[in-house]
Input
Amino acid sequence: MVRAAEERARERGRRAIGLGVADDNPRAAALYARLGYRPLAPYVGRWSYEGHDGVTHECVEELTFLVKELVRASPVQRTNGDVQRTSGQSRGTQ
Output
């Protein structure tokens, strides 16, 4: 899913992509680091949800915002062996 999000961002002309990871989730942080994401800034995430009992629960979590520079795929480069000769000479002859 991360790679799909990165590709979609590239298709839309974005040069970078970011996401947040909870400070108490080192496994996710390690995965994102392997994928090329680097820490940019700490922040506090806040949200609420209603539980099955109808009670609203408030949540606060310390996170780190990670960012990855997106590079466009380079065009395929041809080697001399890939280029067909057009001078009428076949390979191996002069």
